[in-house]
Amino acid sequence: MDWVTFGYLAVDGLAVGSVYALTALGLTLVYGLLRVLHVAHAGVYAVGAYGGWLAYSATEHLGFALAAGALAATLFGLFLEWWFYRPLAGKPPLIPLIGSIGLFLATGDLLRILFGPYQQSLPALEPRPVLFLGAVGVTAPQVAVLLGTALLLLGVYGVTARTRLGLAWRALAQDLEVASALGIHPPRHTALAFALASALAGVAGVLIGVYYNQVYPTMGDVPAYKALAVVVLGGLGSVWGTVAAGVLLGLVESLALAFLGNAFPPEGVAFLALIVVLLVRPQGLFGR
Amino acid sequence: MYAVTVLTLLLLFAILALSLNLITGVAGQVTLGHAAFFGVGAYTLAYLTTEAGVGFGPALAASVLAAGVVGLALGAVSLRLREDFLAIATIGVNFVAVAAFLYLPYFGGAFGISDIPRPAGPLGFFGLVLLAFAFTAWLHERVRASDLGLALLALRESEAAAAALGVDVRRFKVTAFALGCALAGLAGGLYASYIRVIHPEDFGFPLSVTLLAMVAVGGMGTLWGPIAGAVLLGGFAQAFAFVQNYQLFLYGLLLALTMRYRPQGLLGRRP
């Protein structure tokens, strides 16, 4: 393989991987606070994509699409937290996990019922090279995805590392009872974490919709288990581990597809890697 | 005849739900990859009876053995993983199994294996499946009532406390895992012979979720819970054929509503 091909594959892998990271980051945030695997997060992502598609169809403006996607996802995420996860706090983790899978299935199918089973087009950016790194052309959607992800990740880092809210989250994740005794109100903070996680998933949904120029009801299926794999690979609850694992998975998949062709399904590659990593490091790559 | 077909499939679901209940309900190990072992059993019988000319009886025994051995290996490996990690890693088992069925040269690729011999007519085969179901239920109850079952219940409540009382955590967990997988292999062999044609994607993640849902909606850790769950969710497709367009939506909603308002399942005891 020559360097130019490698460069194209690497840029594609980086773009897809950064969206994995964006989706998985929300899962990590929720897991850190609630200790549940929020499978329906992938449904929130699809809802965000549809919100963005509706807004784009009405306004033809990418900014409005991103804002509407984030808003739709946030409202849906907050509803799930309030109606489903909050009352089940303290139950064995299997119970919210199974219900969450049910919510995920219902969400995807509801989108199909409401908007039809077909792929909708979200042509906000033309896949035209706008930037050249040597001989490697980077397209407008790729720039949007990479730039958008980088800005959001910096924002999340700022919130979790530098604000009182982030401090409260970390305290809650460490020890719920001590944190509550010190005056942190868990339901409010959990809801805020859900809002941020869902907004991130919504933006990720719109960005992926723009990247592939398609929005469809089952678009959450692949992120559903891939984000889980990323979260575990990164070590549950580790923010930087999640980001690194997401980008890594995107790169590995992009290159594996080029080297192995369609001989082996990419899902198989992702999970084979996951199983191997877990055997060597049961706490994940970056977990403690 | 239609009724016999539905009943046979429901009984096979019930065997699968009970076998998963041994692992998840009784021993507390959440697995989202149970369909893979059903697939190992199905493919073992299909390959042996169509390609290797082995008779139905020995092939079915081989199905049980193959799924049990794979389960034993995986159970031993999975001991290293925490609860949530186990659930996610076992999702991967589905993808790896489906990929293996697709790409190993003996298994017919995407076309699967067809013309699998069936040793009896539909009614006779129904009797055979009923027998297998009775055996599974009996074994399930034996395990629950034995020292093994009591130890597993103790493990589910508190692994640390059980270990402190001298329960061999490793051995019991692996035994439950392997036993559950072997029974899934039994169901798989019977299924392949009954339905006569199998495809790789019959044994993927969606089926694993369905099986876990049967156990959870019915009531984990009980005998009648998983059976009721299998009948309810297995019969769901038949019963709700008139709302086919909304089937998956209703199914997902049913799961969420059950967990939200009756987390112990329909027949489970309040924890």
Q: Any overview of this molecule?
A:
The complex is a heterodimer of chains A (288) and B (271). Chain A has 288 residues and is mainly alpha-helical. Chain A is built from eleven helices and two strands. Chain A starts with a helix and ends in an 8-residue tail after the last helix. The relative contact order of chain A is 0.20. Chain B is mainly alpha-helical and 271 residues long. Chain B has one domain. Chain B starts with a helix and ends in a 10-residue tail after the last helix. Chain B: Keywords: Cell membrane, Membrane, Transmembrane, Transmembrane helix.
Specify the helix fraction band of chain B. over 70%
Number of strands of chain A: 2
Proportion of residues in extended strands of chain B:
under 5%
User: What share of the residues of chain A lie within helices?
Assistant: over 70%
Helix count, DSSP H or I runs of 4 or more residues of chain A: 11
The structural class of chain A is mainly alpha
Radius of gyration of chain B: 18 Å
Round the Cα radius of gyration of chain A to an integer and report it: 19 Å
Give the termini separation of chain B.
Answer: 42 Å
- Number of self-contained structural domains of chain B: 1
- What can be said about the biggest beta sheet of chain A? 2 strands, antiparallel
Shape of chain A: globular
**Helix run count of chain B:** 11
DSSP, total strands of chain B: 0
Summarize the helix and strand pattern of chain B as letters: HHHHHHHHHHH
Largest interface: A-B, 48 and 43 residues
Domain unit count of chain A:
1
What's the shape of chain B?
Answer: globular
GO molecular function (chain A): L-isoleucine transmembrane transporter activity; L-leucine transmembrane transporter activity; L-phenylalanine transmembrane transporter activity; L-valine transmembrane transporter activity
Protein name (chain A): ABC-type transporter, integral membrane subunit
GO cellular component, one term (chain A): plasma membrane
Main location (chain A): membrane
